[in-house]
Amino acid sequence: MAFQPIRRQVTIPTAHVMPSTLGTPSSNTNECFGSVLPKDSALHAYSSVAPPEHNIADDTRKFETPNIEPTLNQSGLLNAFCTDHCPSASTGIVHADTEPYGALPEIRSTGKGEFTCKTGQYALYQNSHGWKPEQYSLQPGAEISAWRHRQDSENMRLRMEQLQLARPCPPTPVYGLGLQTDPGQWERILKTREGVFLEKEVLLERQRQHIFQLEQKLRGNEVQAHSTLLSQTSPYNDMYIIKMQELQREVTFLRAQFAEKFDSSSTEKAELEKKLNAGEAESRSLREAMKEAAQKHTEELRKQEERVKGRDRHINSLKKKCQKETEQNKEKQQRIETLERYLADLPTVQDHQKQTQELKGLQEKSSLLQEQVSELEKSLTEIRNLNREKETQLATEKRRGQELMSTIGSLKEEIECFKQTDVGEKEKRLTQESEELRQEVLSLRKEQECLRKVMESQKKKIEQMSSKVKVLEEQVAQEEGTGDALKVEVQRKETALQQLRAAVKELAVQNQDLMEQNVTLQERLRQTRGAAQPAELEAGTIITLYSELNLCLKDLRSICTLLSQRMEGRDPNLSLLLGIHSAPHVEDEDGASDSLSLDKHLDAVRRLKREIEDLRTTISDRYAQDMGDNCITQ
């Protein structure tokens, strides 16, 4: 049924009759809020980006503060209800004034592009239909005052509930400590937020029911007004028109309240949808963050396990190398012990000096004996010459004796002849000659006996001298044999010293190699430990520096003792000379120092160790050379 306006020629002093809007309240509201309601997709897109803290703060403000237009006098009151530290996305929206006894409120437009409906448009609509309201205020009905009282009490109750809910669960940052909190705490926060969302949905449902009741009441009033306009043609039209105007004003007031409530409910619905979407996005992001954190944690655990396994393998390999080196050190220690025993069997300097003194005494004795032998040989040659002369004399005397015997025989024959001739004078003369010859023969015999005795004594002396010469020759042969044996022994000792010198050099080289290998292994071990823990690396470098300095100090002390022993003429200690000492034990302690300065100190200490090793090798070579020279001179 189409609405037909009143065509009676009745003068109305106040205003014309407003045409009915029955059945079209939603169209008017849609004209006012057409740009707000169909924007669900945009609101959903904005709600996925809005931060949850801002939404919660807006929530609490929306449900705690009543619909009061913010002015300079009311700013303190608004701040007293709820203080928001985050910038709100709805700060530009100014809520409509809901004063019951003033003029009809206007729904103002904001700076954020939200559309509102002003009462000026409705006034233009009224002027176009020839109806102008009078400038006076209406007293609200009992129902409106009761409804406002109920609304205020409901808002107060909701504000108290929100304050109680806001105390135990303050808004927490999303990503500040998200990875360090317990998942149960996140679940409790999500449950509390879901409870808040459910309470807000219940409140929205109540407001929707109240708005639906107001719409029904408005439609009933409009139907009643139209029915009165169409049905009554009594002479009391002016009174009805006045009452209709009052009802129309009440309808416009209810319509403005309905628009305001619908606007607030739509904005609250949009904000709640934003908050819901933000909460869902936050929960999704939290779940993704928790998944990523769990994945990172598992990956880090796997990497740490792989690193630990690699370190264990490296440590096992280093242990095997250390065991091999200890075995090699034991073998070399055994070899050094055998060499020490061999060197202990070798004569010392005192024994060598005694042997040299004995050799010198024997050489002096042999020289004296050789001089005695030469003198005895000279005397023997002289005695032999004398014997030869005496033998020649004896031979001449024998010949003379034989000649004398022959002469005696001839003289006897002549005597016999003279006897036969009896020549006295000749006999006498011959007897005298024979007696003289006898005396000469006797004297010659005496001389012969004396010479024979002398010869026998000379023979005895010659035999004694020959026996002495034989004894001296035997002694000289024995001395020559002992000298040859000593020469052979000296040559053998010289070869042994050369072998010992070569072994000492080889041991020194092997000891240096072992020390370098030990230092390299310590550096590798320090590097492997330092790759994971830099503080332990610095402490290890400090400890290695101190241990190396201690070793260098011990080596310097041993070299000083060696030099003092050599200066005093004593035998040097072979363990100190060969540089045999226990391997340094590196302990793991905490410490802090500059890595560059520590590396420099370590390099300096290593150079000092190399110089000490060179000095030790030169001292050992000099000692071996001195031993060889002494053996050669002996």
Automatic annotation (TrEMBL):
Domain Centrosomal protein of 85 kDa-like CC4 coiled-coil intervals: 439-522
Keywords: Coiled coil
rRNA-binding listed as a keyword: no
Coiled coil, from the record: 237-400, 427-531
Gene Ontology terms: cellular component: centrosome
PANTHER family assigned to the protein according to its UniProt record, in alphabetical order: CENTROSOMAL PROTEIN OF 85 KDA (PTHR31075)
Full protein name: Centrosomal protein 85kDa S homeolog isoform X2
Gene name linked to the record: cep85.S
